Amino acid sequence: MIIGVDYFNYGFDQQYYDTAIPTSELDELMMGAGMYDELFVSVDDTIDEKQEKPAQWTLKTIMDAEFNNSLEAGSINGSGHVVTKIQCYRREYRSTDTEWQLVAQFDYDDHYNLYTVIDRFIENNKTYEYCVVPLAKEIMGDVLIGPPVHSKYSGTFISDIDTNYSMNVDFKFSDLTYNGNMSKSVPLNGQFPIVSFGNANYRTGSITFLPLTPQQEFGYSSEINAHDEFINRQNVINFLNNGKVKVIRREDGDIIVVATNNVRTTAKAEGLDAISNVTFDFVEIGALDYNTMDKSGLISSAGKAVYTYDDDGNIVWNQEYQAEDGSKGALERYRNSFTPVPIRRAVG
Predict the structure, then answer these.
(1) Are 174 and 204 in contact, with CB atoms under 8 Å apart?
(2) Which of 305, 299, 300 is nearest to 109 (CA)?
(3) Are 148 and 127 in contact (CB under 8 A)?
(4) How many helices (H) and strands (E) does the chain have?
(5) Over the stretch 172-196, which tens digit does the pLDDT of each residue have?
(6) Could you tell me the superkingdom of the organism this chain comes from (predicted)?
(7) What is the pTM of this model?
(8) Residue 245 contacts by C-beta under 8 Å, 6 or more apart in sequence?
(9) How far apart are CA 303 and CA 118, in angstroms?
C-alpha cells in the first residue's frame, strides 16, 4: 500500500490507496467511510496502470459512479428518479444555429442492457453529435453527449424507420416541380388581373430505378435468379405502397420527406423481364423537423439486446434480440445487418 500519492493530479490532500488485490470471481463491492470522487469498475484488461479518470462508458464498464449528490452509477443519470423511457437526440456538430432534434424514444426495460438506434435520416457530408437523456415520466435526467459522427454515403436512398433501399442502379430523377398556390381574379373595370399568393411551397416528381438483389447488384452471381429478383422487387413495391411517410436522401445532401404513389414497373428490355425498373411518383409533405417526424411516425424506437462476460472478461451476447418493432429473434440475424453499439446520451 502506498500512502500520500497525488490523487489524479489534484494535490496531496486528495490521496488514494493503490493496492493490488485478486479480482477473480468477485460479484460484490462495498465501500467504507471516506470521501470519494468517483468509483470506476471495468473488466477491460487493456486499461493501463495510469491513475486517470475514464473518458466514457464502454461495453466492458461495470460501474462508473461519480457521486454527484446521488448513488447512481450507470451510463445514464436519472437524477434520483426511476427511469421509464430513454430519448436519443442529434444536432449538427459545432453548429451555432441548430437545436437538438429528437430521433428516437423508447421504453426502458431493465431486462436488456444494450439499446441500438439506427438513424437513417441524416444529410450527406455532415458531422453530427448524439446525446441520450433518461426520462422518469415527465422528468428529464442528465444529458449524456457522445463523440461526433461524420456521415458519408454515395447514391440516393429512400427510407422509413424500419427499411432502407438504395436506388443506385439505373437511377433517374424526373424534373423536380416546385409547387405554389395562387388565385387570379380579373375586375370588370380593370385591364390587368389581381393575383394573390398562398403559403404552399412543396415539391413533386418521379423516380425510376432498378431494384436488384445483392447477388446481382454486386456481381456475386453470373446468372439471374428470376424468382429471387421477383421477391426482391415485390418487397420494394410493397414498401412504396404501404401508405407510410418516407424520406428520400440524395448524395448532394438534399432530404425530402415524401408520400409515394402510382408505382409501376417496366421490363429492363425486350426478352429480359426477369428484372424490371420500378417507377413511382412522390409529393413532399413537410420539412424534416420534429413536428413532421412525430406526426408521420418517423421517430425511431430501439433494438434491445443482452450481453454479459465470460471468465476472461470477453463480451458474450445473449442470442435473443428484440427488434425496433418489438419482434424477437436470434441476435445473429440482426448483427449481420448492423453491429449493436451502446447509445450514449440525449437532451431536453
Answers:
(1) no
(2) 305
(3) yes
(4) 4, 24
(5) 998 899 999 989 898 888 888 899 9
(6) Bacteria
(7) 0.75
(8) 160, 257, 258, 259, 285, 292, 296, 297, 298
(9) 9
